[in-house]
## 1
Amino acid sequence: SQVLTLSTTISTVEGFFSMVRNGLTWIGGGFGGRVFPYNGYPSAGDFSQSVGYLSYVPDGATISEKVAHIADLLTSGRMSSDVLAQIVASFDAGASDEMKIMVAQQLIATSPEFHTTNLVNRDGSPREPTP
């Protein structure tokens, strides 16, 4: 049997997103257990139904510096400046810095650099198919 299936991949990504949005809870496919009674799906940043949440505030004067700091922590410096620029460009201009950090964490968690331990080489050439 396969360990890594489409179902487990989707569940893992849902768990990452839920951890960022609502903390350690079962709601939204999260990694946490069912501790609190269900009171509806909480909005992003509402940690009232979680047993823990990500509260780290990155250093930096600008949102670009903060995203770069988070990317360094989550990918050990493997994320290129081009990818960081795409992440920062994806933000809604009217969103708060806290919401921008949440979106950045979610986007970084879906990047190849987050899921590998080697450097990602983005040269634009087509990949060789696996036999």
Note: Residues 23 and 54 are 7 Å apart (CA to CA).
## 2
Amino acid sequence: AGWEALRNATFERQQAIGWIPETARLTAIDPTMTKWQDIPERQRAFQTRLMEVYAGFLEHTDTQHGKILDELDRQGLTNNTLIIYVFADNGASAEGLQGTVAELLAQNQLPSTVDQQIEVLEKDFGGLSALG
């Protein structure tokens, strides 16, 4: 599957429910982005786990925003409230195109490969399920 398949499915679902116009076309993936088919098989579970963790973050965030909207509604303030929603979290990986298990590695410019991160997860933390 991979991120291209997820991207396509998300776009199609958003069109189907009317969030984006039927005439909209999905832009091409930036050529600097790694294609899923180019991710080595041994790294795909790691990349899949990063996508799962990000999805969990988005689900949690959506739930918290929903609580605010529910409370405004409960108080009868919905029709007298302007909501400006800016969701700017830098995407699934602010640490580069490969992702990381330790943001401080990237912030301190300490290079690490995906294979090194997988090794640390397996050796020191019990595997991918510990991530997230």
Note: DSSP finds four helices and no strands in the chain.
## 3
Amino acid sequence: DEPTNEPSSEPTNEPTLIPTDEPTANVSATAIFIQKMTMSKKVQSKGKKHKFTFTFTIKDKKNKKKVKGANVKLEYKQGNKTTPVSKVTNNGGKAKIIFTVKTKKGSVTLSSSGIDAPVGYAYDKDLNEKYSDDCPAFSENCASYVFD
């Protein structure tokens, strides 16, 4: 196949003679999302620490199958210190992220720095389940959550 002079209106696998500004979208990638998110908090050291456990289930949109190998990346902020945490999903599409904070330092703000999707998948935060409000977890309008 010969390259065309102009970009096409629909994505194709055909090259163009003139380089385009935008990379070609991976139209074959299947969207993945947070299908379920749960949080538990345990008080430790007579109230001096809180242990948070977040469990995520990642599924693909097309087949509704649980996705193994997705790296769920979060950040939690307490005071002016931000700490990244991450976990890769297991065979059942689950990732459990656990961290402990000192209660005297105040509330914890949790946000997501995305999900590194396995080959053939692309993370779409707008498909995430609603966690505690009316928009998908970690989407633009629900980018973070505060826990006391």
Note: The two ends are 61 Å apart (CA to CA).
## 4
Amino acid sequence: AHIEMLYRTNLLALTGHSTSPHYPPNKVLIYDDHLQRTIGELSFRQRVLTTKLRRDRIVVVLRDRVYIYNFSDLALLDKVHTGDNPLGLIGISMDNGGVGGSTTSAVERAEDALGSAGGGIGSTQRNN
């Protein structure tokens, strides 16, 4: 199981493992500890490797793609196909920065989805 906390708030992203029917490895549950209940759920066809939270975004990493969601309504903002990433490695800026990537077009699309294109605060590292 994997738990990601939004800063020091009561909001958590929970991802399960294959032995738990309540927390399967292909779902991300957004849990409010203050309300003691799940307030959102994201489902995928593949196992979720990493989840990162930011005040305005949820970033979910699968083996070959990254999904970026709006935190407030769980609307899908972008899906970025990546190379094979079996460890689910990703870095995001906790401000209005970008997501690291291997191609310029994917990074630019992720920057747009994260709201940092056009000279926003933060930086993106491109690995060529």
Note: Helices lie at 104-114.
